[in-house]
Amino acid sequence: xxxxxxxxxxxxxxxxxxxxxxxxxxxxxxxxxxxxxxxxxxxxxxxxxxxxxxxxxxxxxxxxxxxxxxxxxxxxxxxxxxxxxxxxxxxxxxxxxxxxxxxxxxxxxxxxxxxxxxxxxxxxxxxxxx
Length: 130
Known about the structure:
This protein is an all-alpha fold. Helix content is 50%, strand content 0%. Helix 3 packs antiparallel against helix 6. The chain is globular and about 55 Å long.
């Protein structure tokens, strides 16, 4: 039996290939190397705990976590390559900037701990992926 991939399926195929590449290259637990250092501030112990509690209470299983982290990686690839001049990432909560992130459900996004700033997005990703 021959399977045909139609143009409407290309996004799903691309995301699957991206997932496989990320896993094979062992890049799952690290933020993309292309993001600017201003988005790699450390998180404190309290923030780390709140991130882990967010995962346990709001994300249902490994598949949903992968979808969330994949959307977060794509957001970082698109938006965190350079520092934007119109805002201070140290005072910009992530929750307010992820409104257009692919694959991040609004209900889940709204539950991200509010004290995590855009300057910490890389470390938040690493903490979630570990």
